[in-house]
Amino acid sequence: MLLIPCPWCGLRDEAEFHCGGESHVVRPPDPDAADDAAWAAYLFDRDNAKGVGFERWLHRHGCGRWFNVARDTVTHEIRAVYGMTDPRPETAS
Amino acid sequence: MPRSTYSALSLLRHGLTRHRTWRPAWRRPDPKPHYAAIIVGGGGHGLATAYYLAKTHGITDVAVLEKGWIGGGNTGRNTTVVRSNYYFAESGRLYDLALRLYEGLSRELDFNVMLSQRGMLMLAHSHHDMEFARRTANAIRRNGIDCDLLDRDAVARRLPLLDMSTDARFPVLGGYRQGRGGVARHDAVAWGYARAADRLGVDIVQNCEVLGFIVEAGRIVGVETTRGAIRADRVGLAVAGHSGQLAAKAGFRLPITSYALQAFVSEPVKPILDEVVLSPATGVYVSQSDKGELVIGGGLDLHPSYSQRGNLPTAENVLSGLVGMFPCFANLRLMRSWGGIVDVVPDSSPIIGPAPVYGLYLNCGWGTGGFKAIPAGGTLLAHLMATGEQHPIARPFGLERFRTGALVDEAAASGIPH
Ligand SMILES: Cc1cc2nc3c(=O)[nH]c(=O)nc-3n(C[C@H](O)[C@H](O)[C@H](O)COP(=O)(O)OP(=O)(O)OC[C@H]3O[C@@H](n4cnc5c(N)ncnc54)[C@H](O)[C@@H]3O)c2cc1C
Ligand SMILES: [Zn+2]
Fold first, then answer.
1. Where are the domains of chain A?
2. Is A12 within 8 Å of A62 (Cβ atoms)?
3. Whole-prediction pTM value?
4. Residue-wise pLDDT tens digits, A48-83
5. Model confidence over B131-155: pLDDT tens digits?
6. A47 in Cβ contact with B259 (< 8 Å)
7. Cβ proximity of B258 and B290 under 8 Å
8. Chain B interface, mutation test: which of A44, A47, A57, A78, most B Cβ atoms within 10 Å?
9. B62 in helix, strand or coil?
10. How many contiguous H segments (helices) and E segments (strands) does chain A have?
11. Which CATH superfamily is domain A3-82 in?
12. Which end of chain B is more exposed for a tag (fewer CB within 10 A), N or C?
């Protein structure tokens, strides 16, 4: 069971949240110029990190806002919580 | 050393010597410096691939490298449901190849995999579920696979313990059923393939973790392991939830996310349930093992994970769904629960095909439902590694489908784990 620190509501039970998958997935800047391989990589390929990974979470049954979480996918320890448009934080993994 | 076959006679013979004369079912060889083919991952898919390489294609200079013990991954952690009632024709061909091979597997391997085709029933809880059941059942029959639509009374007759009352938490309107579906013994599938492959000359090397790849002139020519470098003409990857990890070592990414999937087992009771039952509304499914335990499964944990244990919210969901369907099961105590790391793909279909790096071949992405597919996954990866060509049944499942957009979206049939 995770306790997730929502930046707006504080520590809440993981069942209130929805994990929106990997964060920092960058859309090809000019989609018309991107070939099928680049587009497929953007849509489907993932780092799927073992250890610290960066993901988007939604406080669905709370304030309804999105934020980013740096979480260890083996220990489930939450290393950092940061804004949707912030860069990846430094996390020693 | 003649290796004995298993039979009633051999059981009697070993019984007379108080079972002190049984021999190990496979050798424990040290890895050789070079093999014609290496398979990474000693789960069902890896072991079956090695077996069919040797049996069907005569390639016996093969090693299976397993970081722990064979069957210690998802193959030994799953809830053992086998079935082939998928929606799309491509999937029907794939999973029915597996089921047909399962039907002859105990004889083929001389190892009882305890296949029990007791039938698998998918419930329908609403008018819309019922329409979907009708559409799905028609699609499955069109794929040439057995499937029957059941009305409310037919379900009630098969499942006397199911809560069929009109104010049930999940009212039941009917369902559809594959009579050839059922369960098989998971460990026996791994051990049976291991023993049969070993007899054909395959080296099964346990406690041997693959750490990276040996690449020469852009081609994979071997692997680095905790037991040294081992070279090979070709390498097959069948490591389920760890596919992304090993792909990264080879320099590419995969459309895979790893999640924990949990299973639960109750204390044993007398025979009370002779079907595999699944509810799409709760995502819960249940069957009774030969030992009398209820084997229970449900949905994925709520976030990606590499820790082989589940979290509590999902456990609560699954168990409350179960007692919603079968109120009397609330009296049972749980004996065990555990988790396995499954390799989830956006279209819920497996990936079988060449990797983006020469010399490497993939069998992964089975996610929550690849136990039922083991004989087919092994057959198809062996075919690819032996001939360099995709088997016609494997063709729709290559990695290129994500580029071309020809996804085989089985979320409806396999989005729920079983
Ligand atoms: C709880 C649960 C219930 C399930 N229920 C069902 C079901 O009812 N029916 C169904 O059809 N499917 C079910 N599944 C899915 C099914 O178990 C899997 O799809 C299937 O077992 C995958 O087999 P595999 O051989 O690909 O993987 P695995 O059996 O996981 O084998 C992969 C092996 O690779 C090894 N490995 C990993 N990394 C390395 C490395 N670097 N070097 C060497 N070895 C490595 C692992 O130790 C492991 O033994 C379930 C899964 C779970 C977890
Ligand atoms: Zn909040």
1. 3-82
2. yes
3. 0.97
4. 999 999 999 999 999 999 999 999 999 999 999 999
5. 999 999 999 999 999 999 999 999 9
6. no
7. no
8. A44
9. strand
10. 1, 6
11. Folate-binding superfamily (3.30.2270.10)
12. N
